[in-house]
Task: inverse folding
């Protein structure tokens, strides 16, 4: 199985400051169709997850442009340009290139 | 309103069975791959299973293969997860969700399954 490793696992941030989460995969995530299927999810406390980013850098509908995804191969990053109180929660990367699909361990974002 | 409404969770003894349902509305359900994702108490997300648009193809995590079965009824706009031979380690909050590689993402509210004697 492809192992997804996130860092850090805990991320205290100051309101208005940027934040960055890293996700590394144990295998390359380029699909045979040429696409890289790496997604990012946000799970606010007590809520269902929601996807923020798909195919490395594409924002889902309604996702603020403060969120951006980047990366290639085995190294990927989620960036929040200016953290807001609403961003508190756990963030997960997920690969859907290989079977079985696998998630990272999650990164807990909290306000300092 | 675009939504997925889940039902069917509960308490079951080890070795028992449950069927989870996920009713879709507000979008063309038959156009989308769907999935089940679970979250153990205090734990992270774990992918469980995917199914294609017409239900002819499904994939599973190794830990559930042969015990959990995903299916869908496009006429009823409903996704299912049949859970047999349940184990304590299957205890989790189960989410149904779309499984797309396009700008469409929707999740159910989650349903709790507790496997305990």
Result:
């Amino acid at each position: 199985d492809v192992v997804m490793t996130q860092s850090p696992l805990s991320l205290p941030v100051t309101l208005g400051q940027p934040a960055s989460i890293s996700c590394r995969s144990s295998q390359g995530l380029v699909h045979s169709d040429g696409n890289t299927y790496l997604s990012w999810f946000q799970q606010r406390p007590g809520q269902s997850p929601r996807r923020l980013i798909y195919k490395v850098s594409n924002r889902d509908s309604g996702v603020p442009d403060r969120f951006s995804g980047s990366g290639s191969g085995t190294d990927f990053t989620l960036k929040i340009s200016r953290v807001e109180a609403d961003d508190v929660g756990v963030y997960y990367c997920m690969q859907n290139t290989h079977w079985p699909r696998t998630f990272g361990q999650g990164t807990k974002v909290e306000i300092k | 309103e675009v939504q997925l409404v889940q039902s069917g969770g509960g308490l079951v003894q080890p070795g028992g069975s449950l069927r989870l349902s996920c009713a879709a509305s507000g979008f063309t359900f038959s156009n989308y791959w769907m999935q089940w994702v679970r979250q153990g108490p205090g734990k992270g997300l774990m992918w469980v299973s995917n199914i294609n648009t017409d239900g002819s193809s499904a994939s599973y995590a190794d830990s559930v293969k042969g015990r959990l079965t995903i299916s869908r009824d496009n006429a009823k706009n409903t996704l299912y997860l049949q859970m047999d031979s349940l184990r304590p380690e299957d205890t989790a909050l189960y989410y149904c969700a779309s499984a797309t590689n396009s700008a469409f993402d929707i999740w159910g509210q989650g349903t709790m399954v507790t496997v305990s004697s």
Notes: Residues 8 and 24 of chain A are 11 Å apart (CA to CA). Chain A has a mean pLDDT of 97. The longest strand of chain A covers residues 19-25. The two ends of chain A are 36 Å apart (CA to CA).
